[in-house]
Amino acid sequence: MPRIRKPVVPGWFTQDTGDFRLLGTRCRSCGSVFFPREDVFCRNPGCAGDDLEEVPLSRHGTVWSYTDGRYRPPAPYVSDPDTEWRPYTLVAVELVAERMVVLGQAAPGVGVADLAVGAEVELVPGILNEDAEHTWTTWHWRPVTTAPGPETTA
Ligand SMILES: [Zn+2]
């Protein structure tokens, strides 16, 4: 039986892989953008707004910082203790238009040697993990390569 694809956090990103985006919210009073989304009140201390609209965030950003996880995190992180630990790469990405930094894992196969502060990255759909019934989807950041060649998207 095929696994059901489910977002690891509902409402944080689109399910449309054609125009895959993180979803934040924007205050209609002051224009502040929030991610993770804020749906109740504006967190700008100088604003009393409470009307927030959902907005797709920029697909491209620049690397603000990065590191890799070489140790298995404790629960509730999901991993199989019987399998060999494979390091993953975390990237903090600055979105210029939204004036914010968003964390995420780098796409599979991307290590710290492939990243540099200031380098352009793009948002791509990713898989966090799979269990018997579900494929848990998330977002990944992938370096934008300027080299010519066939471009494929997941
Ligand atoms: Zn506001």
UniProtKB/TrEMBL annotation:
Database matches in Pfam families: zf-ChsH2
Domain of life from the UniProt record: Bacteria
ChsH2 rubredoxin-like zinc ribbon domain residues: 20-53
Signal peptide feature range: none
Protein name, as recorded: Zinc ribbon domain-containing protein
Organism for this UniProt entry: Streptomyces halobius
